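Box 3.1 A note on notation
Throughout this textbook, protein chains are presented in two layers. The first layer is the amino acid sequence; the second is a token string describing backbone geometry. Keep the layers aligned when reading.
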Amino acid sequence: MDNINVDTFEDQSIDLQKWLLIFIRKWLLFVLGVLIAVTVAFLYLSVSVPQYELSAQILVGNDKNPLDKSMLFSGFVSDPYFLENEKGILKSKAVARKALSKLDFTISYYEKERFRSNELYKQSPLIVMKDTSQLQPVGIGFDVQIINDSLLFITAKGEGIFLYDYQSGEYKQKLPEFHYQDTVKFGDISGNSFCRFTIFPDFNFLTKESIGKTYSFQFHSYQELVAKYRNFKVSNDRSSSILSISIKDNNPYKGADFLNKLTNEYLNKGIERDNRIAEATIRFIDVQLVDIVDSLQSSGDRLEIFQSSKKALALDFQTEKVYTKLEELESQKAKLSVKTRYFSYLLNNLKSKSDVSDLIAPTSLDINDPVLNKLIIELAELYSERSEMSFNSIKDNPYLGSLERKITDGRLKLSEAAKNILDANEIAIDDIENQIISAEQILNRLPKDQQQLLNIERRFKLNDELYTYLLTRRSDMEIFKASNLPKNEILDNAEAEDAVKVSPNYRNSLLIAIVLGFLLPGAYVYLIETINNKIRNREDIQKLVDFPILGQIIDSKTYKFPVTLNQPNSELTESYRTLRANLQFVIDESASNTIMITSAIQGEGKSFTALNMAVIYSFYGKKTILVDFDLRRSQTIEDLKITVDYGLSNYLSKNSTLEQIIYKDDKLNFDLICSGKVPPNPSELVSSSLTKELFEKLRQAYDVIVVDTPPIGIVSDALLIYPNADISLLITRYNYTSIDIFKTVVEEIKARGIKKMGIVLNDMIIDKGRYGYGYGYTTKQKPKRLVKNKKSTDQ
């Protein structure tokens, strides 16, 4: 198991080394990638509008006022969702829109620069007054060029522009195209059937430098503004009830104004809700007081008349006790009667299907039933949620239907609870009335004058006590309304001076650019290397064939052709010497040898290799001849720039002798048989008996016979010549020979039982500092060869 791990690590280290070498050799691509990425980053930074982040803080208090709906719960201590509810209120569209309606954000102004436009919030030399009775195009910029101190040139152009009605707050029409152009003076009305506005100067910012400059302005709908400015974050620490509201804006002053207005509207929302409930309670009490005042006045007058006409009548102790009890019962009945009226009010409200968000709080009338209070809170929250979703919600929102069903169910439950409490209340009133009847029976035994006095006093005290009770409750509501303050508190307002610039971040942008400058070229190189289906190293060959790799010929683009003659001490010549040395292990150099050189397809360098191998063998004193058996597309004559009268095709067609086709030149160390003119039947000539006879004669006269044949993967000529060869060399070209084609050719060679075959990897690119006698070869993709060199490598 340990051995497996070691092998695995070794394979990984080899892969890393391989990729590292590939990346190093592509260093120019990485440098270019970084330069381009950094340039793009600087362009981005130059056109990006800065964005600032600023925040405000609110302390959400737990001090509950009598009208706070959370206090309607009996025994309420704390609401675990309290802070989340407050966050929801802050993020609501209603609060955001109310804040934006009190800010002048529907028109924004910009100063146009070369690469970007900067917003001029409260600093624009122009003041645009829109005509709200006219539809206005939103989402399109009006360019305004200040020609002189009084004249303006206005242009606008856009597609798919919406017309907006500021009075109804709705989109009314969509224009496929909008074009506008006008020249006006400051204060003149400008417009057409799709827009109308007036531009005034702001002399605080209109200077001589403004003349000739181009500014722009744009109309915004409330829906657009709400969508944009609701994109703020609300967060809190778990250990506190402090909410932090943060927003990002291109203009810190504009962002600060919005946050401050938002927090103010959030605080006012709670006050307005509580005040509405207090006012509803006061109105209810006032209605009850109208009847009580009349009864109190009437009973008071009767008591005064009776007392003035009759002498004071003393009561014994037992009668006084019964009378006191009777007064208490009357007081309880009066209070229960007020509660009965409240439940009747509640049931009527539910029957009318009006919004219960402004219902009189039960606690304001000493009604503390926990079930009733909970149902009222739940229903009020459902109405609030429906109102929130209805604002700017899409039409036919499926959740609204579900919400309506919940509201209907909540009203039904609240009605049933109110009826049950009302029934219980009436039962209590009946019980009290029975007790009152029993007490009255005792008092009926008194003399008639005493009975009359007691009845008048009872009615007066009852009305007086009920009147006092209602006035007390009304006074409590008035005091609460007058002293109603937000239960929450703004700890920190948003200040533009405290804004933090969050984008663009120069350091991060450049760092990202540099990283991408390396990653993208790296990914490109990796992708190209991965999907490249060309032979690029020994491993690609060894995976497909068992034939030995006898040599690796380095790239020849920098050498003069033929290199082995012109530069015998060059590294390229040395690679051919290495190939010749490796061949010693597979052939017997003491006898005459025929070396057939072929390739899978055209352009792999077989003719180039054949010519240089002939030169190499001639250097070692071997009598060498190069035979160009490519009767279809020979390149030898053109490469050597020679002229011959006869060639191999003439000999095989019996039109010349062997002596006539052998070309000798003092500049060459070897003899040469050119292919001659292209015959109409090359395959028949190659397969004739003269081919075998030719090789027998050449073996008697030469030590080494180098045979250049057509590509074995294209025509069968090389297969016909193979029986006459002692060794065959299959030339493959680095980053040129397709692995699929090479694999097909190898399979065909194996199928024919060919075994005397060696592989030569041609056109390698080496690390100059590591070269030495065949060792230290490394490969990389090289640029395209010049036309001259292409010819020299046997297209």
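Residues 252-309 form the longest helix (58 residues). The two ends are 51 Å apart (CA to CA).
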